[in-house]
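User: I'm preparing a small set of examples for a lab meeting where we compare how different chains pack in three dimensions. I only have the primary sequence for this one, and I'd like the structure in token form so I can line it up with the others. Please keep the answer compact; I'll paste it straight into my notes.
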Amino acid sequence: MHTLPKLEYEYNALEPHIDAKTMEIHHSKHHQAYVDKLNGAVNGTKFEDMDVNEILKNLDKVPEDIRTAVRNNGGGHANHSFFWQVIGPNGGEDTGKIGDAINEQFGSFDKYLWGFVNNKVIDNGVKAMSEIPANTKLSDELSKDLKKRGFNFVGSTICYAFMQAIGMVNDHEVSCFRYKEV
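Assistant: Understood. Below is the structure token output for the 182-residue chain.
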């Protein structure tokens, strides 16, 4: 049985950059949904207790009738589990050569990031969690640009999860109470 990993910090630890409510929803609702759907797909199979990364490495061995659900939800679970380890309160501005170059060109890393969306939140207007993409053309562009500048571990899916977490993308279901707040 797959479980939601415990965060090593409180939901409010990233304020003012990411508010506590956004972190709580992203972790306890959004990521939990990936875990629940993965468990539903692999229930009663040999994959039920297998590490999610091992499942994804052996996706060709997953029965075809559950493969898409396992790929999408196992991938979401694995990516978010990695994301929680990468993001945290002990981070900060990159002040090395890469960070200095971005700060010189854009003024700050925040301005660099928000420049990808013209300083406006992208509203996807999703009606169901299943409509939320793992990545988008924009997250592909951000990933490529970050890699070009020398950053590592910035795949498109990680970039999209980061964009969600910092509020660049509103992927709340239209029926969610947070939808209009974001």
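A couple of notes for your slides: The chain is about 50% helix and 0% strand. The mean pLDDT is 85.

User: Perfect, thanks.
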